[in-house]
């Protein structure tokens, strides 16, 4: 019987960790399952359709960019890239920023832009400067401003499409169900009406798919922090900034300015705080930098909501601070061990 043993020689690093890229990505996907369930509960089949088409656009574009040329001159496409879950998350987050009655072809196009312009044009996973889902959302906001600001109320129609879900591409759409509603932020902005905080907390309001049930985002954030997927500094600093900054104006004139609770749970702040501001690629890498980054987002959110031309400011606030992240990383560094 042979007793020969093989000696394996390899280079560093030698430490192994379960926190691989696919593991991290799918932990985030799992945390989104209750949020998707809430979106279906409030907005029905239209919500699932919008999410499906935005995910399909992201996955298709990811595969398209995997094209490689073979020796025989034929191009092949690989499905390995989509297995890490990054494109799936981008599609889900993009879909959650869209109205339930959004045309499905537009949602698909948004997914294409999210991956193509938000990720691949920079060099692929880990190279992008801006959050890909927000790049797609910004494109849709600029290209289809009417469709992206047409909201359907939560009315318990579980097995029906909404608004212009099945609209024909590039043709003028008409609101199929004829029922629209205003979001809490638009009511605050244009009518000076403040939605009850309980409706905001449990999701009984109009808005994007990810503006439902704020309590679920709190629980999702706690889960991701506990699993060490995201760090607590960014969400805590961002939310504290919004509370303090908006609270100052609320104390000055509570009839004119909304309360900090309203600011926290209205619009897409909780979605952006938990899932987009904490993006590992587009946020600073140092603790001090994370505080600066998050405080900047919080200040921009309040400024845009109170005095900007649009009711919501989360998307623009995060994108602006994404652009500032390389500068923050350059000037806010951790002290090198052993260096005086």
Task: Give an account of the 3D structure.
By secondary structure, the protein is mainly alpha-helical. A hairpin with a 5-residue loop joins strand 1 and strand 2. The relative contact order is 0.11. The chain contains 13 helices and 2 strands. The termini are far apart. The chain is globular, with a radius of gyration of 22 Å. The chain folds into 2 domains: 163 residues, no CATH class; 146 residues, no CATH class. The mean pLDDT is 87. Helices cover 53% and strands 1% of the residues. A two-stranded antiparallel ribbon has the order 1-2.
Q: How would you sum up the major sheet?
A: 2 strands, antiparallel
Q: What is the molecular shape?
A: globular
What is the topology, as strand order, of the major beta sheet? 1-2
- Classify the helix fraction into a percent range: 40-55%
Please sum up the structure shown.
The protein is an all-alpha fold.
